[in-house]
Amino acid sequence: MSGNRVAPDDQAIDELVAPLKSAEGGFAMLALDQRESLRQMFPLVDGDEVGDDSLRRFKDMATRVLSPLVSAVLLDRPYAVTDARPGSLAPSTSLILAADVLDQPRGQGVITTTLDPAVTPEFIGRVGATAVKLLVIWRPDEGLEERTRLVLSFLDVARAAGVPSLVEAIVRPATGGEWDGPDARHEAILQAAREVSTLGGTIYKAEMPGYLPGDVSRVREHAERMSDIVPVPWVVLSNGVNQPDFAPGVREACLGGAEGFLAGRAIWGDTVADPDTLGALSRRSVDRLRALTTIVAEASRSRGPRASEPDVEAEGVRR
């Protein structure tokens, strides 16, 4: 064992993450912690972006409609979580609290992240969060020491609070550059997992491995490689995945070893600008969540108990 890699204890992990698992099996978790990216989904009002209250209302509505269907909901401070557990969250559903501050200029994606100083162990306990989540931006050959310090600081907070930690890595090309092609980005997703997932988080949240718009044929293969790398349970997110592709992609990812999803936009993204947002959430989003939960449950039953620690060195040789 070398570097910062932490050897997982499967039984301890299973006990820690049990409140985040669906009764049907696997992780069926909803992300509603988007901030500026959510604001950009709303139609402009007299040429201006909507205010914070529009974000708060949507998060409250979506949480109220969709949280009964999932095992956990990821929410942010301060738009959705203030001084107590949100009343819109179903009693049986766990709260995952976002512990990141996102640097996202208008009209752009997230550039970098930092740890939210307000998300302390005391605050986590007060709002009844079952787990905490951190997003990091990963670029090849850039920022390794800074990323590592950020993740380890986050893990310290989670341990002090006695809750599981979810670490998410979003890959970007080198500053000022572009990906050489889809394969370069696919490899970066695996490289990010190799670096970030082994620092000690409880669950790793990954971009859909091997995905191309309209094509999920390589997802299972890349998910198998991801499973060989990541020493803890991992789930997929929906960022960058076209909505019609997400359910087939989740199926392929789960067949390759993913244990579920923590996703938002593929579930509710097209409801934000719908004139009947409540109706769209109640119909389209509910149907999507039910289908996704079934996919995860079926994969969980067929997979059986989680395998022991993956062989990171073997994956490195194979590549």
Describe this structure in words.
This protein is of the alpha/beta class. The protein has a single domain (10-318), classed as TIM Barrel, CATH 3.20.20.70. The protein has helices at residues 10-17, 36-39, 52-66, 121-126, 144-161, 182-196, 219-229, 243-255, 265-268, 277-303, 312-318, and strands at residues 27-31, 72-75, 94-98, 100-103, 112-115, 131-138, 165-171, 203-206, 234-236, 260-263. Helix 3 crosses helix 10, helix 7 (219-229) packs across helix 8 and helix 8 (243-255) runs parallel beside helix 10. The longest helix is centred in the last third of the chain and has 27 residues, at 277-303. It is globular.
The overall strand count is 10
Strand order of the largest sheet: 9-8-7-6-3-2-1-10
The number of distinct structural domains comes to: 1
CATH fold-level name: TIM Barrel
**Strand content bin:** 15-25%
Supply the CATH class. Alpha Beta
Report the structural category. Answer: alpha/beta
Count, helices: 11
Shape: globular
Roughly what is the average pLDDT, rounded to an integer? 93
